[in-house]
Amino acid sequence: MATTGILIRRGAFTGLRPVHPRADLVDIANLIEVCFAPTLDAAGRSAIQEMRALGRTRGIMWLIARLTRALPPLYGFVWLERGQLVGNVTLTPVERGGGWVIANVAVLPAHRRRGIARRLMQAALDFVARRNTFAVLQVEADNAAARALYASLGFQEQRTFTHWRCPAYQRPALISLPLPPLRPLVPADVPGVTALAERVRPNERGGLGWLRPVSEAAFRPARFAALRYAFGGARANTWLLPGSDGQPVAALRLETRISSLARSFDALIAPEYGEQLAAPLISFVLRRLIGREHAVVTEHPCDDEAMNAALRAHAFRPERTLVHMIWTAGNDGHRTRRQGESD
Asked: d(Cα 113, Cα 115) in Å, to the nearest integer?
């Protein structure tokens, strides 16, 4: 479906047009705040304030913001209703792989169920199709209407992930379990840990998590890690538990940043060891990461019941559960609308 109804000048028409960053940024920030208020965390609210500040910047300051990448290139589409911005979809390039992230699919409540979200999505997918690539998005697991819309446009569900948090103030009572004999990863271990990750977190099912594909680079010790950490980069350490054949049956990837109030981890466990190792591994994580000033967070597949139980037992609480979905160019599902469907 070609994108039609493009507006030539603001305030004159009702319809779809590409984003104009200087004209639209403040209105998009306001729209996101209204539509996503229940799920915005501190980082999300801060991002909205930054969008408003940049949107009000003019002249040389706008040029400086673009040149310094404080305002990255903004792709997407908006829907205007008699000059009022009432809908938006944002497109952002994926750093690796050449695809696009679709985000901020939002329509003001008073203008929903009129097909606006579908038209915005169709425009976004036409944009991706012209580049012969793919698009990915996240949607709240309990948002049945949005999931149905995306499925009707040709998106496939990869996997559902839950974001868990153990707050800094919680200081959970660590369960008295013998800790598994984990050891730090050395370069020779990287292929084995990658193979374990490919088994339990295959890329076709979302990889390690949102925009984090499984690859040897994800586990290979970084060069100049201390220097990068000092300048705000991530410092990651991987621990593994070898099996009887020497290959890892479990691994933990722990990540910290000076600039972050949370420390994160990934737990990878061969399925046949899940019940046995989930709780001891979480105890190991908390003994290394918990602090009065730092929360501990993880993004984990929600279909792992053993890990869900272990996280709850250690005072972790679920924050959000998100379905990861993917659309690939050449899939024409977005060109047809099922009878009776709306946004």
From this structure: 6
